[in-house]
Amino acid sequence: MRGVTPELPSPRPLIETLPGLYQDDPVARAWTAALDDLVSPVFLTLDSFPAYLDPWLTPEDFVPWLADWVGVALDPAWPPGRRRAAIAWAAELYRWRGTARGVAQAVELATGVTPEVTDSGKTTWSSRPTEGGAPGPSPYLTVRLRVPAGTSPDLDAARRAAELAAPAHIPTTVELAVGGP
């Protein structure tokens, strides 16, 4: 947490901003030194503001704020590295949202397992609004997590990630394949 930091000198002492007449006054020096103790953390925070915007460098208590700022919902159960990675990858995840690649990236981020994503791939169009598209099978999206025997990824996290990244109208299924290809 940020706050008063004892023995931390101010990078911009207030006494230096006063006219020379006051710089020699002991009362003015004591008064501005007390204020320097209060504002020095502010100056240091502002001087390092770019580091606060970098998910890999920001202090841990700023990570949720940064996630809110970029619109990422963090799972509190995730380790700190995964939460920071979610923020770092936010733009990339939004760019590919709704595609098989985007679903795979979101599920991999949530579980640490690279999934296989298959979908129906069907699209239709019509030049007239009253005409429907060509009939065909219902759309689907399947996410398959292949893991070695004895390991168990978080399937609930995989389902949440897949449903958030998939198009809203597509039924999504998450499957676990244990061992082998």
Provide the succession of SSEs: HHHHHHHEEHE
* Largest sheet strand order: 1-2-3
Q: pLDDT average, as an integer? A: 84
How many E strands? 3
Q: What's the N-to-C terminus distance?
A: 48 Å
Oligomer: single chain
State the name of the first-level CATH class of the domain at 89-130 and 137-178. Answer: Alpha Beta
Residue share in helix: 40-55%
Question: Within the CATH hierarchy, at the fold level, what is the topology of the domain at 89-130 and 137-178?
Answer: GMP Synthetase, Chain A, domain 3
Q: Which residues form runs of ≥5 with pLDDT under 50?
A: none
Structural class: mainly alpha
List its traits.
GMP Synthetase, Chain A, domain 3; 3-stranded mixed beta sheet; mainly alpha; 181 residues; 42% helix
Compact summary:
This protein has 181 residues and is mainly alpha-helical.
Describe this structure in words.
The chain is mostly helical and 181 residues long. Among the domains are: 14-47, no CATH class; 89-130 and 137-178, 2-Layer Sandwich (GMP Synthetase, Chain A, domain 3). The protein is 42% helix and 10% strand. It has eight helices and three strands, in the order αααααααββαβ. The protein has a three-stranded mixed sheet with strand order 1-2-3, covered by helices on one side. β2 (141-147), α8 (155-165) and β3 (172-178) form a beta-alpha-beta unit. The model has no long low-confidence stretch (mean pLDDT 84).
